[in-house]
Amino acid sequence: MSTVKDTWRKPPFIANPVLRYGLYAAVAIYFLVTLVTLPIDWDRVSDGMVRAQRIFSGAFPPSFERAGLLFDGFMESLKIAILATVGGILLSVPLAFMAAGNIAVKPVYLLGRGIIIVARSFHPVIVAIIFVKAVGFGPFAGALTLVVYSIGFVGKLLAERIEEIDFGQVEAMRSAGAGFIATLAYAVMPQIMPRLVGLGIYQLDSNLRASAVVGIVGAGGIGATLANAFGRYDYDFALAITMVIVGVILISEAVSGFIRKRIA
Amino acid sequence: MTSKSLNQTLDHWTRFTLRQRLMRYGGFALTLLVVAWALSSIDVIWAWVWDAPSQMADLFGRMMPPDPSNLPSILEAIWQTVNIATLATMIAVVVSLPVAYIAAQNTTPNKFALWVGRFILVSSRSVNTIIWALLFVAIFGPGIVAGIVAIMFRSIGFLGKLLGEAIEEIDRKPVEALEACGASRFKIVLYAIVPQVMPAFFAVAILRWDINLRESTVLGLVGAGGIGMILQGAIDTFNWPEVSMVLLTILALVVFGEVVSSYLRKKIL
């Protein structure tokens, strides 16, 4: 009976003590080394505080004098987001079929997955820079960027949904002698439609948000207006734009959440 | 009676009721209208649009083959990018813990703290990393520090929100048991809350690290360190073979991040 301990300890997260302490030590060393070797120039930071103060005092109060410009920028962002969402979804559906392991043959599957992985890997700003160089400044480059961005997200999640479908309906259609397209249209599409609509609404919201960023590198919309304001030291206008962006994002999040709840 | 109604149903079978059909067609029409409005009023130079495929082909032609001559400095910048993402995630996780604690309805000390927590989360999440980076480059000067702080500021909102939701979903009973034993607030958190949110905590931190890897690839474009600096330099000098090399390295980094994070997630959950 003496073996029963009268104190209790929390069981450790990783049972092997060598591995546990080794891991802790490795993380701590990495953290310390990278933190200590950070090139922080404290003189520069104290200069920066003055600058930050200048930026903030220049930003308050926010200026809504050029509300017209702000409104135009937003309308452009909205149009970019709408067109990119529609274009992105039209491309995502065939891509998702390609990237679904239960529908596509192996080479097509790998190609589809590859396209989706590449589309997801690059930050929209990088994609935007490339498109701006290729097709020039303006909303067209922004729309192309967000099409790529939408493919990465909608394509991936839709492909996963297709892989989860009830395959009985596909088998029923096949045994009745239906063609490939007919099978997709009548046995697969109805099953993934709710997900597709939900993803589309979510993506519209997320494209609107992203379109504010890609504009900073010249791809049109409110981001272009923001970058201009920042570049001309119009901090009060920049703050006004940022505030409106935040407000619009909150509203669009609420609206898309509401619609998705109604649909699901 | 049964056979009659069955016959009727079979003759007139439709998938949707009239109301549903009207709603669907209404939805389609509305979507078409909105798209038409956007297409007709957007300020696009259509000549550039028709020109786009050949321009794109031209650009990709210039990028081939990728030029690895600058690989050592690209790899160094990639290492910097990994450091920015990792350090910022680690610090943000620590900072977001108290924020999540006061922003969760069941652990917040009072209504005021709840609103302070909510405000921190919303303002952190709704400003984009690039905009945070613009601000911190002005404060800290160009370089990795501004990048770390920008990523950190953005991550706090994300981590705090998801952790707060995990805290709100805990089982109350261990908390009540410890309260009944007279445990201190600190002990309640440590023994009744922490073990329950631990898996969510690690899952969320790993997910954010993965996102931060992607985000930190663009910080350099506004001067906040990492691979983006090299990318920007190569683009500005029209050094397209180097651009494609950088893009390939970023692709490898992101795939690496996804492999590592899915491995860690499997280990933990």
From TrEMBL, chain A:
It is a multi-pass membrane protein. Pfam families: BPD_transp_1 (PF00528). This is Phosphonate ABC transporter permease. The chain crosses the membrane at residues 21-40, 80-105, 125-152, 172-189, 210-231, 237-259. PANTHER family: ABC TRANSPORT SYSTEM PERMEASE PROTEIN P69 (PTHR30043:SF1), PHOSPHONATES TRANSPORT SYSTEM PERMEASE PROTEIN (PTHR30043). Residues 74-256 form the ABC transmembrane type-1 domain. InterPro entries: MetI-like, MetI-like_sf, PhnE/PtxC. The keyword DNA repair does not apply. GO terms for molecular function: ABC-type phosphonate transporter activity. The keyword Membrane applies. Keywords: Cell membrane, Membrane, Transmembrane, Transmembrane helix, Transport. It is found in: Cell membrane. NCBIfam families: PhnE (TIGR01097). Belongs to the binding-protein-dependent transport system permease family. One of its GO terms (cellular component) is plasma membrane.
UniProtKB/TrEMBL annotation, chain B:
It is a multi-pass membrane protein. The lineage of its organism: Bacteria, Pseudomonadati, Pseudomonadota, Alphaproteobacteria, Rhodobacterales. It comes from Leisingera methylohalidivorans DSM 14336. PROSITE patterns: ABC_TM1 (PS50928). InterPro entries: MetI-like, MetI-like_sf, PhnE/PtxC. Its main location: membrane. The keyword Heme does not apply. The keyword Cell membrane applies. This is Phosphonate ABC transporter permease.
